[in-house]
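Data availability (excerpt). The following record was deposited with the supplementary files.
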Amino acid sequence: MVKLAFGKGPKHRCGLLLILLAWAALLSGCVQRGIERSTFRTVVIDPGHGGHDAGANPRGVSPEKFWTLQVGLRLQKRLAQGGFYPVLTRTSDIFIPLDTRVGICNRQTNTIFVSIHFNATRKRDIRGIETYYSTARSADLAKLVHSSILRIPGAADRRVHTAAFHVIRKNAFPAILVEGGFLTNSAEAKRIASPAYLDALTERIYQGIVTYRGSEPGATSTAQ
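Predicted structure:
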C-alpha cells in the first residue's frame, strides 16, 4: 500500500491529479502502446459476433455474423497479398468473448485493429456506412478507412463517430469498428448479399489501411 502526502497548493493538487489519471489508465487495461504508423505490418481483423451471438438478424436475411466473417476472410487474403500479416479473432462460426478479441490484439506489437460489423435499426429506410473509434490516436485510421469505403458507388455516408465499444475502447493500439451497411434496409441487405459488394467493401477497407500506413509493406505469398 502506497501512502500519499497531500499538499494544499495548486502544484500539489495538479500532481495528485496526474497520479490519479495514470492509475486510472493502468487499471482500465487500455494503456496505449507504441506504433510506427509507416512501418506496421500486422493487422488484427475482428469479424463481429459468431456462434450463439448472431448479431443483427432480421427476417429473410442471413445474420450479421455470417457477413462479418465473409468480409474478414476476404480482408485476410487481401492483406496477405499486400505484404501485411493479418490476424483474425475468429475464422469460423464460433463465439469469441470481447475480452478475448481485445487480448488477441494486445498481445501483438506494432499493429492496428479493424472490427467488422453490419448495422440494424427499426427504421427500415435508414442505410449507409458508419465508422467508429474510441481514442484520439485512432481518429486518422477511422477517417481514412471511412473515406475509402465511401468511394464505393452508391455508398451513403453516416459519418465517423466516437463510441465506447469494448473492443476499441480497451484496445492498446489504433482500433476502429466499421459498420458496412444496414441489414434492415431491404435494398442495402440485398447489396450486402452480393459477392461484388463484399469484394468492394474489402478492397476499400484495405486501401484505407494502406493510405493510413502510407504504403504497402510488399507482396507476400502466405498469411502469417
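Summary of structural features: The first strand starts at residue 42 and ends at 47.
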